[in-house]
Amino acid sequence: MCSPGADPRSAGAWLPLVLLCGCVQLCRTDASSKLLPEIIYPLKPLPRPALGANFSVSCEAKSAFRDMTIMYWLANLSFVEKLYPNGAVQEGAVRKEPTGTGVVMQRELRFKAFSNKDLNTHFMCVVKNPAGVATTTLQWQPETAAGTEGPVQDSLHS
């Protein structure tokens, strides 16, 4: 492969190794993408609650890892209890339902009295397992002249 006196760092010497590594990475990424957690709810915009309303938002996700998956809510990228030390917004307990080789998980975010502070807060449901992370973000829009709007929502898998 290398001719006498050729620099072993030349492209010709390393090309087969680079191609092999690329194939291994591609194959690994394709297989692991099937193991990523997936948020299944909320996927649709939810109606904006009235100020002062007591309500909850539920996050549901699927994971291939029954015992190695965590789920939690963030508020402006902080833990909910840190941003709301008074308990005005709290996370419910994680509920798990085994399905086949995986699990479906659910966790509520409970609002004691929806407030203007909540309107200006980005809430994010995070699901992590050994294959990666899935998130969905909710933020309610202020009222418009035509009425109320649902939350802005984005779902990411990385």
Task: Note down, in words, how this protein is organized.
The chain has one domain (38-157): Immunoglobulins (Immunoglobulin-like). Helix content is 20%, strand content 39%. Strand 3 (70-75) and strand 4 (78-79) form a beta hairpin. The model is unreliable at 14-28 and 145-158 (pLDDT under 50). The radius of gyration is 23 Å and the shape is elongated. By secondary structure, it is of the alpha+beta class. The strands form 2 sheets. Strands 1, 2, 5, 6 and 7 form a 5-stranded antiparallel beta sheet that branches. Strands 4-3-8-9-10 form a 5-stranded antiparallel beta sheet. The protein starts with 10 loop residues before the first helix and ends with a strand. It has 3 helices and 10 strands; from the N terminus they run H-E-E-E-E-H-E-E-E-H-E-E-E.
Summarize the structure.
This protein has helices spanning 11-33, 80-83, 116-119; strands at 38-41, 55-63, 70-75, 78-79, 89-91, 95-99, 102-111, 123-129, 132-140, 151-157. Helices cover 20% and strands 39% of the residues.
